[in-house]
Protein: DUF1996 domain-containing protein
Amino acid sequence: MLVKLLFGTLYGALAVKADAGPYGVGTDPFWVVSHAPLTSVRLDPIVSPAGISGHTHQVVGGSAFGPVYDYAASQQAKCTSANVAIDKSNYWAPQLYRNHPNGTVSLVKLTYANTYYLTRKADGETVVPFPPGFRMLVGDPNRQTYNESDPTNAAISYACLGVSGPETPAFPTQSCPSNLRAQAFFPHCWDGINNWLPNSAHVAFSSEGNYNGGGKCPDSHPKRIMSLFYEWHYEDDFEYEAGARVWATGDTVGYSFHADFTMGWPDGYMQTIFDAGENCAVEFGLNKCPPLASHLQSNGGDCVVDKNWVDEDVVGPLSKLPGNNAEWGGSTPKTSIPNYVETVKLNSPAPTYTDGCSLDSAACSTSVGSSSPPNSATSPSSSTSSISSAPASGVSSISGGSNGSGSSSAASISKPTSSSIGSTSTPSKSSMSKSTNPGGGETLVAVPSSSSSAISKGSCGRKRGMKRRRRRDNGQY
Ligand SMILES: *[C@@H]1O[C@H](CO)[C@@H](O)[C@H](O)[C@H]1NC(C)=O
Ligand SMILES: *[C@@H]1O[C@H](CO)[C@@H](O)[C@H](O)[C@H]1NC(C)=O
Ligand SMILES: *[C@@H]1O[C@H](CO)[C@@H](O)[C@H](O)[C@H]1NC(C)=O
Structure:
């Protein structure tokens, strides 16, 4: 715990001048990319490549988002909904819906999302950049139970903003006047070889400590990567009623929140940020980090997807959730809709991959990783051409999501090899939040001015659609 306290204290000193501590945290970069929403659509290029995904996702980031993820194509995106123009990564999570008393459901607006790029590492570990083609996920769209000792469960949580109370592993039992914040903390140890393995098995949580600590990486996944932490802010100012919130998966309890990431930073750029060290330990103050400062933008909310791949009303009011997603949770088990037939199709054939990670390759290896020394300053990958196709083993486990109930479970991902996971899940958070500099906390997240009429009718009639939003929840991490 001393480590955790030290960590927070050092970061507290950062705003002034950091000393490099024994864990190097004083010089480690730490920044947050903020996003306006990009699209809500039944696509998932990781779990349901080239098809229609089982449930609706809310997607932010690069406009090249589509039915497949191809690093080279991601770099051609016309825009990004991020506040960093060169970050063409995509970040997605399930779409939140609201059950109405008359039996209809409608989409709940994402106000904005934050992605924390955190450095959490053990003594002696060096953080390696995400290679081109890298993708990962955390969480399980089918999870119906909660085990706080399991990092894949503990990594999913909620903060109810605008009221006091602890964070919770399930939906809060009240409405959240200043947004419901759904949170996911990604595994941060990598096998150093694969850009993807079925069930995201190429990444793992630390083998020591908490899911969000900096405990040692397991031998199976020895390479330390940045710790990604998503905060998805959904409008939640409604007259609370149990069961009114429902994820696109059909889950009314909240355990099925999950999150996906596809790497879309320019090849080598993360290393440039790492090399800036403490200058980029800025949390929200991206303008103080030179490699990011030169690429900031405030018009991410104007970004739209380059291509409309699917025609489906996912906004509503709808008679039921899109896809084969009967509602479940509490005493209601997850079931399939009887005789469900998927009728939604892609508007045009999915593109072919250009980077060697073909549609049916479950694992795409890269030249990065095991062969390069962990602290080498070389670019993460010489080029996308170095990515080779790997055997398509296990592909069936990732392709089942294209027709509703078959979505693969990520429950088996990344079990730590040690059982030393503590029961307190967020020891460093409070110290961190106290220590951050509120002056750096203004994010310019442009929220699209047009929003669906179906979702702008808030029950409390509050003003919505602010063009710029000041962070109220500064510095949770
Ligand atoms: C059901 O309620 C929603 C939310 O109030 C409303 O938008 C929708 O029009 C209603 N639908 C019907 C068929 O009454
Ligand atoms: C909870 O998770 C821990 C760590 O993964 C595991 O060892 C334990 O068996 C799980 N408990 C249950 C009841 O599944
Ligand atoms: C769902 O996928 C299975 C296996 O790929 C296939 O046999 C079945 O026809 C699909 N069902 C629908 C409704 O598309």
About this structure: The radius of gyration is 21 Å. The first strand starts at residue 30 and ends at 35. The chain has a mean pLDDT of 76.
